[in-house]
Amino acid sequence: MQANTIFVRFISFFLCLFMLAWSAAACGSVSDYPESESDSETVTETEDLQKSSLYIAGHPIEEFKVIRAETAGKDIVSVCSKFRNRISELYGFEMEFETDYVPKGQSPSPYEIVVGSAKREGAPSLTDKDQACLCVKEGRLYVLAQTGDMLDLLIDYLIRQILTDEKGQIVLTEFEEGYMKEFKGTIQLRRTDGNPIRTDVVFKTYAFGVTGHNRGYEAYPEALLESQIRAAAELGSKIYRFNFNPESEDDFRYMMKVLDTCDTYGLQMMLVLDDFQGDADEIAERNGIIAQRLKGRVAYYQVFNETDVYAMYQDDGSLYNGGTGEDIRNFNPSRMDEMTEKFKKSIDAIRQNDPNGKIVINFAYKHIAILEHYAQAGITWDVTGVDWYSDMEATEPLSSFLVRAQGRLPDTDYMICECNIWAHQDYTEEEQSEYLEQFVLSLKESEIQKLKAILIYELLDEPAYGNGESHFGLIKCDRKGNIEGTKKAYDYLQLLLCGGKTEAVLVLEEKE
């Protein structure tokens, strides 16, 4: 049995040798004949598929890990995870995903894609939330942004503009050491229907704005600040009127946050310093510090608020003399003198510390005589603000009163600082919208030369109030300021100012 097996194996081996020799004789050696063109292409394509299409400082993408900050919020973690998954889909391997934590005594991997706000020694630094960058430094690729929205845009740019072509196909990419692209995020107002924003069609002369409030108002909490200012911007506003008198470091931190958010959404700030209680020197010192800390950030300082109303009363709360306010005899002389001193000292302090901020003094109804008194006392200001509501419009159209006002105070520009239907009466959404429509269009048609802006009072309802202001806003919200929807007046004004419904969209712009 064993002998037969050996014999069979010998015969098989001999036959194999014979067949190989016959094939060589019949066909020649492999080196005698070139590869066919199709065979060569197939081999090359196979090799290319096996090679990475992305290299970072000379190393293939397969060697790298995605690194995110250990302390990253949910928005950043979510975007980083999506990025890792997308890279894995593109290049066909499971990419590792880790935090930037490095145990003591160990060193981080040299092959990393550092994403979001992750930390690595020598990493590029971002100082503002609207900054982003793509950078290769010491062999690492940095994809950096401080907010989830910015990071999402940056990663979308990386995938769509660099790693793939217009059909989504992978393209060969080499990130060399020293590669750098910097970006800035900006907010653009867009029509939701895709049509262009209609600018300067209805209002060729007047800017438009709205009044909001500080975090001391229940409907305006700090946590919802961005949603408040976004709503003002989407209305078509250019000026955000905001009352606040910062004193503590936390107050100034909050104030800078408000200013930064206004800058992001393209709104100028009108800061209303409405606290005029106390000694003139103390108030001036406080306002001077405010102007110094906010220098260059505030377009308009409204100094105090409706001092005319205060000066029409006596200390016991009774009217001094009544009247429309067009006659100086309607005002309490002692209160006029008090406010004259406070205005002089505060305006001087503001101008010394922020000379480019424009000064606004406002009054309600027809109380212009007291502003003439201030002017005669040597007080100067840039803009006269008028607060005017529907009950006042019933006595005389504002357009005709403004003609007289400009004759009496010819050396300033004018703004409507507050206007709306009168809150302390029963009215419907439709009535509010109809009133503002006829009011705004009447001012447009009159084209009063010195009138520069119309500001609506106010942005949000304030349900915490038991009076008419509980439903006075252009936007419905709950007691805590959560927006529930726009009112007919908001929708009408948005149509008038922008041509239709709009949204504020974050876009990425490459720095040159």
Present the secondary structure layout:
Elements: H1 2-27, H2 37-50, E1 54-56, E2 59-60, E3 65-68, H3 74-91, E4 97-99, E5 112-116, E6 131-137, E7 140-145, H4 148-163, E8 173-175, E9 180-191, E10 207-212, H5 225-235, E11 239-243, H6 249-264, E12 268-273, H7 280-293, E13 300-303, H8 307-311, H9 333-353, E14 358-364, H10 369-376, E15 383-389, H11 390-393, H12 398-408, E16 413-420, H13 429-446, E17 451-456, E18 475-477, E19 483-486, H14 488-498, E20 502-510
Parallel strand pairs: 1-8, 3-4, 3-5, 5-7, 10-11, 10-17, 11-12, 12-13, 13-14, 14-15, 15-16, 16-17
Antiparallel strand pairs: 1-2, 6-7, 6-9, 9-20, 18-19
Low-confidence stretches: 1-50
Report the sheet with the most strands, covering strand number, pairing sense and barrel closure: 8 strands, parallel, barrel
The secondary-structure class comes to alpha/beta
Helix percent band: 25-40%
First-last Cα distance: 87 Å
Average pLDDT level = 89
Number of strands: 20
Shape: elongated
- Radius of gyration in whole Å, from Cα? 35 Å
SS field, number of helical segments = 14
Query: Which sequence of strands runs across the widest sheet?
Result: 10-11-12-13-14-15-16-17
